[in-house]
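To whoever is covering the structure queue this week,

Two jobs came back overnight. Logging them here so there's a record in the thread.

Job A:
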Amino acid sequence: MKILIVEDEAKTGSYLKQGLAEAGFSVDLVRDGMDGVHAGLTEAYDLVVLDVMLPGLDGWQVLQTLRRAGKEIPVLFLTARDSVDDRVKGLELGADDYLVKPFAFSELLARVRTLLRRGTRNKEADVLQVADLELDLLRRRVSRAGQRIDLTAKEFALLELLLRRRGEVLPRSLIASQVWDMNFDSDTNVIEVAVRRLRAKIDDDFEPKLIRTVRGMGYVLDEQDTP
């Protein structure tokens, strides 16, 4: 699942991005309100973690702009502004939660997961499935034929992307940008290695095979008939 952090304080932003990435999320970080609006309107996020005091547009304005554009993405305000009036204002503008700095990361992570659980129940299933392969978005678990499969955070993100785009041939450039947050370099084999390791875990001991290489184009995940 993909999270946008809008935070101008460099240390806090880096701390949040690293912590959420280690928890298995795909994370983008921007440092001012205008970039926050642009990212929120042009990219698909499952959650926004939003500071109030930002250069350019403040957090209130960022939220108002997203809501006026019809974006119902969950928003968690994370700010040093701790007055009751500020909390009420944030919630009345359409925020889903409000957490005051300084904060414990464990509490922030719990709130993030709660908001994501709410959001996924409203818009999609908590479990992505094809054949007997299941990916539980909330518990961050994968199983096939009832057998638990342990994946790294990157393998989980790669499998989630393939499942969400089931049946589509995904080019290496798209996978690189979505899972590794990098531009595709034809000289690196990081994607091929990751796909090979993922196949070894979810395909090698099972039928039907689900991940297929389309030569010269990329990878696709879908149920295929056993020959």
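Job B:
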Amino acid sequence: MDTRQHPRFPARFHSSFTSVTVVSGEGDVVDLSLRGCRVQSLTDVQPGACLEVRIAVLEHEPPIQIQQAVVRWSREHQFGLEFVTMAPEEWARLQHTVKQIDMEPYERDKQAPELGESS
């Protein structure tokens, strides 16, 4: 049974992460929610590790920075993070990003021509 409080949305953002214990690496955020994400990475991280995470959402903007995220699970080149601490402006950027991802299918549908319409 899935007990998440916030829905996760499919995503594909480059990320990097570091920890106090000198774990550092890069990966791809493959799903994202307001409180966490799933990362695909070749870097081995252990459940319980605390990471600082940077998620590159837009090419010409600085990455969203999560000051503290806890690794909740890890398996087969993937791990799940719970976001614990971030600055208010980073929280606002994350909220905006998740809202955009949530709205994307609807925006795409609005832009698609209606069936039966001729150009």
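Note for Job B: The domain at 9-111 is CATH 2.40.10.220 (Thrombin, subunit H).

Please reply-all if you pick these up so we don't duplicate work.
Q.
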